[in-house]
Design a protein that fits this description.
There is one protein chain. With about 350 residues, the protein is of the alpha/beta class. It contains 13 helices and eight strands. It starts with 8 loop residues before the first strand and ends in a 21-residue tail after the last helix. Bound molecules: coproporphyrin III and fe (ii) ion. Coproporphyrin III binds next to helix 1, helix 2, helix 5 and helix 11. It is found in: Cytoplasm.
């Protein structure tokens, strides 16, 4: 295999999560440092983790993805060493970057485990990269962050496959009346409006909201029939006085039940894997809401290690090494004001 230029390593950057009860609070302190999150919300979220023995599934999901990517790179002749660093828990990004420097790595292509444009999913990753590089100093490796990949077929097709499977799992007599709820992490309205650059005509929820609407449509286009669908939000934090993106998934399930809708399929299209926000907020909380209302409920899997999603990683590497054209399904204008190319 010939070594590729201009990159000499691949890096997965993720959120990180605790892997034991004693790690929960320090992890939450890392996440919320300098953010405007009420103490009660923090205690509540801590309980979500304790319910699972203090173990977030996200780190294991990163290991699984990296194992699949390692195999795929070998099959595709991509000869790059693979590294992993998190923003909020071990292995920490700063430590990984320092290890890369010691290994002689100069130019890094990094993939974030978030697909969309907004401060929290994009800019914050860039800021953390800058901070980690600054701590190392002059010989810090250079890092390019792969573009938002929400509109790559390798992100959309797994969601479509998983939505079909969830529809199939509904009771047959309710399936025809099912509503699809595409669920993403809520963010403060002000943060959403800044995404994509202010005044760029993306609508109230900024580029993030426009991209979420587009991916929902792309997924529905790939189903055997046109189910009614909408975008909802989950996992809101922040003080109640601060407006965040709405409607909340639970509120919508209650309203739809009152309207007589017999079933919902929740598609977590705002996420890359079934981490804690999916396992608790959807599989426990939203499911309970549905059960209380007597509305049938299924949740589609997130992309995870779907072969098309793993193949997307190879595709993105080739896009950045100039060995492949960008693959994009979206017709939404590219966002402005973040670093995305195009
Ligand atoms: C857009 C978005 C994504 C998706 C894209 C991406 O992945 O980037 C995401 C992912 C995740 N969020 C996660 C966990 C948390 N997020 C929090 C807080 C916040 N998230 C926000 C946004 C997002 N978050 C925001 C605006 C806040 C408020 C604080 C702030 O303004 O920055 C808090 C603090 C407590 C709380 O308030 O809930 C926790 C614990 C985990 C790990 C799950 C696990 O452990 O398995 C993951 C993958
Ligand atoms: Fe979050």
């Amino acid at each position: 295999m010939k070594p590729m230029r201009p990159y000499d390593a691949f890096l997965l950057i993720s959120f990180g999560g605790p892997e034991g009860e004693d790690e929960v609070i320090p992890f939450l302190e890392n996440v919320t440092r300098g953010r405007n999150i009420p103490r009660e919300r923090l205690a509540e979220v801590g309980e979500h983790y304790f319910l699972f023995g203090g173990v977030s599934p996200i780190n294991q999901q990163c290991r699984d993805l990296l194992a699949a990517v390692t195999e795929k790179f070998a099959a595709d002749g991509i000869d790059l060493p693979i590294y992993w660093g998190n923003r909020f828990w071990a292995p920490m990004l700063a430590d990984t970057l320092e290890q890369m420097r010691r290994d002689g790595v100069r130019r890094v292509l990094a993939l974030p485990t978030s697909a969309y444009c907004n401060w929290s999913s994009r800019t914050a990753y860039l800021e953390d990269i800058d901070r980690a590089r600054a701590a190392i100093g002059e010989d810090a490796p250079e890092v390019d962050l792969v573009r938002p990949f929400y509109d790559h077929p390798g992100f959309v097709e797994p969601l479509a496959d998983h939505t079909r499977a969830a529809l199939d799992a509904l009771p047959a007599d309710r399936r025809g009346g099912a509503r699809l709820l595409f669920s993403a992490h809520s963010i403060p309205l002000a943060m959403a409006r800044e995404s994509g650059g202010p005044g760029q005509g993306f609508g109230d929820a900024g580029a993030y909201g426009a991209q979420l609407a587009e991916v929902a449509r792309l997924v529905v286009d790939r189903l055997d029939r046109e189910y009614p669908f909408e975008v909802v939000y989950q996992s809101r934090s922040g003080p109640p006085s601060q407006p965040w993106l709405e409607p909340d998934v639970n509120d919508r399930i209650e309203e739809l039940a009152r309207e007589g809708v017999p079933a919902v399929v929740v598609v977590p299209h705002g996420f890359v894997s079934d981490h804690m926000e999916v396992k608790f907020d959807l599989d426990i909380e939203a499911r309970q809401t549905a059960e209380k209302q007597g509305i049938a409920y299924e949740r589609a899997l997130s992309p995870g290690t779907h072969p098309a999603f793993v193949a997307m990683v190879s595709d993105l590497v080739r896009e950045y090494t100039g060995d492949g054209a960008p693959r994009r399904l979206s017709t939404v204008p590219r966002c402005i004001g973040c670093d995305c190319p195009g």
